[in-house]
Specification:
Elements (H helix, E strand, L loop, with lengths): L15 E2 L5 E3 L2 E2 H8 L3 E5 H17 L5 E6 L6 H9 L3 E4 L2 H9 L7 E3 L6 H10 L3 E4 L2 H10 L10 E6 L25 H13 L3 E7 L10 H11 L6 E3 L18 H13 L8 E4 L3 H4 L3 E12 L3 E5 L8 H5 L6 E2 L7 E6 L8 E8 L7 E5 L20 E5 L2 E6 L4 H5 L5
Parallel strand pairs: 4-19, 5-6, 5-12, 6-7, 7-8, 8-9, 9-10, 10-11, 11-12, 14-16
Antiparallel strand pairs: 1-2, 2-3, 4-13, 13-14, 13-18, 15-18, 16-17, 19-20
Helix pairs in contact: 2-9, 8-9
The structure holds pyridoxal-5'-phosphate.
Length: 427
């Protein structure tokens, strides 16, 4: 790879190979980052996060949608620094638990810009949402409506009502992995179209709830835009509403071998068009909830090679794995990998983690340049659902999060210590 050439868009914006032949992210040399902060480590290009947030907002404006809001699905990267950055950029925040609500509030999201999700919201979670007067609660099931009605018993003043959306599963299947497909009729999320009519009637009867509109999230890692138009068509059967929230799901590119997903601009344009052509025009409010499309490609993970062995395959084992990136094991998600100072490789390797499971493989078909113990390995596109699903399997302390920007690196989440592993022990 020629020095200074720009890299595939799987890497964070602005990544490059520097004069020493090393990968640079956010202007920082990844070998130096590995030395300074240790490995494994999540490295995030701050400017990449900002650029994507701005691209979504600009796309809404370009599509002529005045009342358009981008709601970050916080589960994709539930860390204060990331949330605070998006709050600063004017985004809203989607939370699906009391813990995520706590994180969003702590990161500075005004409650009015918080959307509360969940298919099993507890009474405590609903109480917290009401107490903070969040912008929207997305209703998922009849039991939750009952619970809210009970909690709101005394709140009957219309000016005081809690704004809500009704989550509908429009029976549209995106072409994606079963475990991240959510729009089918027999889903654990939301109301079927038929049930939704009853839910809407129930909500309308209750003075404590202010029905604002509908929500649909048809699935994740969608690489075509037709499912969004079909979802809009289904939602429109329930009538016109002040607000539509069409969920997240725009796919991202995890490896250079994959075709690029639709651009943010095209996706937003299509979403706006889909809403408009079903009666939800410019005078209505439109929300979308991107998660991975905002953060996945902003992040990379750095590892250090511990051992290399050859049997049928060439096994390259690193100091992390399923404790910092569960996606390959959960969904068979593909990743590419590179030696950080010799990015172009041709030797087929299996990039394995350090955990006591044969399934602990980060990349089954990595092409690496003669990897040796001590080499720093980088896996791009780990900025979504990596940190979020990190765990302490095999007593692995969870990695730090490093923000890199214009050559400056700062730790925004420190590495867990062994002491952290026993910090909750009692007695
Ligand atoms: C997971 C989720 C999202 C975000 O999904 P991405 O694929 O990361 O964009 C948005 N909305 C809801 C309700 C979700 O469950």
């Amino acid at each position: 790879m020629v020095t200074g050439t720009s890299l595939s868009d799987v890497f964070p914006l602005g990544s490059r190979v520097n004069e020493l032949g090393r990968l640079e992210v956010g202007g920082c040399d990844t070998l130096e980052l590995a030395r300074e902060f240790g490995t494994p480590a999540y490295v995030v290009a701050e400017e990449d996060l900002r650029a994507r947030a701005r691209a979504f907002l600009a796309a809404g404006a370009a599509a002529g949608q005045a009342d358009f809001h981008v709601v970050f699905a916080s589960k994709a990267f539930p860390c204060t620094a990331v949330l605070a950055l998006f709050a600063q950029e004017g985004l809203w925040c989607d939370v699906a638990s009391g813990g995520e609500l706590h994180l969003a509030l702590g990161a500075g999201f005004p409650p009015a810009r918080i959307v509360v999700h969940g298919n099993a919201k507890s009474e405590a979670e609903l109480r917290a949402a009401l107490a903070h007067r969040v912008g929207l609660i997305v209703l998922d099931n009849f039991d939750e409506i009952d619970r809210l009605e009970r909690l709101l018993g005394e709140r009957v003043d219309a000016a005081d009502a809690q704004p809500v959306l009704v989550r509908v599963t429009p029976d549209v299947e995106g072409e994606t992995h079963e475990k991240i497909s959510t729009g089918q009729a027999d889903s654990k999320f939301g109301f079927s179209l038929a049930q939704a009519r009853e839910a809407l009637a129930r909500v309308r009867e209750h003075g404590g709830l202010s029905l604002r509109g509908l929500h649909a999230h048809i699935g994740s890692q969608l690489l075509t835009l037709e499912p969004f138009a079909r979802a809009a068509e289904e939602l429109a059967k329930l009538g016109e509403f002040p607000v539509w929230d069409l969920g997240g799901g725009l796919g991202v590119r995890y490896t250079s071998a994959q075709a690029p997903p639709p651009s943010i601009e095209r996706y937003v344009q299509q979403i706006v068009h889909a809403a408009r052509s079903h009666g939800q025009g410019g005078e209505h409010r439109l929300l979308i909830e991107p998660g991975r499309a905002l953060s996945a490609n902003a992040g990379v993970t750095l590892y250090t090679v511990q051992s290399v062995k050859q049997n049928v395959s060439r096994w390259v084992a690193v100091d992390g794995g399923m404790s910092d990136n569960l996606r390959p094991m959960l969904y068979g998600a593909p990743y590419e990998a590179h030696v950080a100072d010799r990015l172009e490789g041709t030797t087929p390797c299996v990039l394995a983690g350090k955990h006591c499971e044969s399934g602990d493989v980060i990349a089954r078909e990595a092409l690496l340049d003669d990897p040796r113990p001590g080499d720093v390995i980088v896996t791009p596109a780990t900025g979504a659902y990596g940190y979020a699903m990190a765990n302490n399997y095999n007593g692995a302390p969870r990695p730090p999060v490093i923000f890199a920007r214009e050559g400056d690196a700062r730790e925004v989440v420190r590495r867990e210590s062994f002491e952290d592993l026993t910090a909750r022990d009692v007695g």
